[in-house]
Amino acid sequence: MRIRKKPNSIKKLETNENIYILKPESIKGKWHEKFGNSNPINIELGMGRGTFIISHSLKNPQINYIGMDQISEVLRSALDKILNMEEAPKNLVITRLNIEHIENVFEKDEIGRIYLNFSDPWPKAKHVKRRLTNRSFLARYKNILKNQGQVIFKTDSRELFDYSLEEIKDSNLGFEIIDVTYDLTSLNDIENVQTEYEKRFVEQGKPIHRLKAILHK
User: Which of 13, 79, 84, 193 has its CA 20 to 30 A from that of 56?
Assistant: First the structure.
């Protein structure tokens, strides 16, 4: 997805501190206090323009959501969507983060579910460790997820999907794959929320692959 430069993106983000978290590391272990409740916290890593996580926050007011991306213009697009709503969801915040540093932002057992949607497939072998389903990232997820927490991963890349299935199985980190589909669209899953990428791929006739993995600690 092409990202247009948006002047003053960072300034606009920082002036909406009720939605955008400038220093997420300062809230480590205190996210429930930030939301003002003890509801479960789900996060999306690489949130794109926000369609997915905004939709989830509206459908599930009993769950708190945090959307993360490392591109300011992308976060600005999500912020604009939220600000244009008649009433912004109180159970959603967004923040800028390099996922490699996720353990600096969340305490052990602080998160209930992690969504990975259409992550960069990094097809070259020399880049395999950058894939967000590589075991080095899975180990980070394990540290912040609660017992019985979940990772839900969607992609259009069959190569990345097959790699992810094997990596999760071989990682010995306590993740159990509980659901696999190679054609999510055909399931007519009413709980599935499409991302911007997903809508485009479905229109092109590409199959969407999804897996769900649960963590046993």
Answer: 13
List strands edge to edge, sheet with 209-215.
Answer: 20-21, 92-96, 64-69, 41-45, 111-117, 145-155, 209-215, 175-181
DSSP state of 63: S
Q: Which two tokens stand for residue 143?
A: 């540290």
- Cα 84 from Cα 36, distance rounded (Å): 24
CATH number of the 9-215 domain: 3.40.50.150
CA distances from 217 to 107, 134, 137, 156 (A): 15, 19, 17, 30
The dihedral built from the CA positions of residue 9, 14, 19 and 21, taken in this order, carries a sign that is positive
**What's the pLDDT at 5?**
61
Q: Give strand pairing partners of 175.
A: 215
Query: pLDDT tens, 56-95?
Result: 999 999 999 999 999 999 999 999 999 999 999 999 999 9
Which residues are part of the catalytic machinery?
120
Is residue 212 within 8 A of residue 178, CB to CB? The reply is yes
Phi and psi at 51, nearest 5°, equal -55, -45
